[in-house]
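INFO  loader      accepted 1 record
INFO  loader      residues=376
INFO  predictor   begin
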Amino acid sequence: MTARKHVRAWAQLRLLCCSGVPVMSVVPEVCAIARELMPESVGALFLTDGQGVPHAFFHEDSPPSVQALFRSEPQLFQGDGEYNVFRLVGDVGAPKLGQLLAPPPEYFASNTYQLLVRGSGHHHALDARLEPDGQRSGLLSVFRPPGRGFDRQDLSHLQRIALHVEHALRVGVMPDEASSAAHWTCEAEAMLVANAAGRVVFASSEAQALLESLPLCGAVWPDRRRMPALGSALLERLHDAEQHPGSLPYARWPVPGGVLVAHAQWLGLQGQAPSPACLDVGDGRAADGLVGIVLKRLVPDPLRVWRALTATKLPPQALEAAYWLALLGQRDKVRERMALSESMMKDCLKAVYAEFGVSSVAEVAQVLRTPRALAA
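INFO  predictor   done
INFO  writer      dumping tokens
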């Protein structure tokens, strides 16, 4: 890759991680950029507590069976000989970068290597602990198959990528009910049915796929036959609305590529809540003990605009200007945000207008914020 393409890749990463979108929503794009900078690599992101216990993870190239093993049998990957997220994040005094650049011999006999790393077709690993504002919050890793290993240049790239991801962890926010309707586009929709205790009793293939997109693990989703923890809280609000007067039966989770939102309502006569006895329904078939949950996968405008711009040949500065023009809608706001001189702003506008065949800021926003821009 040429130096010029490196500049564009870093500019794209900066925009992505400054977008305000939750980091788990943009992690596929982060991994794709990492692969540009470190060819033949695949990425993984683990979000953890301060002790290294993961509550969410994404691996872009790991078989479902391997991911299920990591979720369901975490005890297999803990102990003195195991070098993985639990240890790389949780060990006090452990280096922040490159603990697996030259791992000890026992690493290759560990369950982590044999069942997870090798089980996913990888051999080499490189790691960076995530510490936004000094708080241990996760691990960013890249892997390669047997053959070409990682070097100090790769470590430098990963360190820089991790700094951007840490910023995304600071600024990423979930949409509320109002903003999701105005600034997030629905990409998929499906419905499932659960009983009042949260056990899923029916889900279409589309709903199952949406649920499977949730990157949650550990205590936040210990039993995958039931709704995850936030989904259970949603049902509690629905069942006892008087105790939650300011809380709607609405939940949302970041998923790779967007956000999954859920709305719940009772299924039954006149939509009335069931009696307390119905909370113990075994198979969930009692009419007034069933809850319908509508799932929607939303794509935020910043991510949709970013994706559309990656298909252009705009130079980095003009690309960034186009991004903020689409989201802010005013050239003066963009010039101030980017600290551009008037002449530099004019140059950016000229390049952007030529790229999209338009003649105004409003037209730039219209082109980039419409769903068809994503497929262009």
